Amino acid sequence: xxxxxxxxxxxxxxxxxxxxxxxxxxxxxxxxxxxxxxxxxxxxxxxxxxxxxxxxxxxxxxxxxxxxxxxxxxxxxxxxxxxxxxxxxxxxx
Length: 93
Fold this sequence. Notes:
CATH superfamily: Glutaredoxin
CATH architecture: 3-Layer(aba) Sandwich
Helix content: 25-40%
Strand order of the largest sheet: 2-1-3-4
Order of helices and strands: EHEHEEH
């Protein structure tokens, strides 16, 4: 099985960014979680990445691999919806 690669794009250390990061970490720490590599990118320190990825809002979580690429925008608090949207197939959260 191909490794799952996720990228979380944030805008600085705001409450919303910290909440999104905590939610992703909570999702990935579930007992039934798919093993994922997570890269966190602050677009305030790397604005060129926001342009390259055509980001319109943050936080944005992107499943880079395996295909198909999928995006979720928001605070990522609904773990089941995030898992379903990214196609992680983790079952009930």
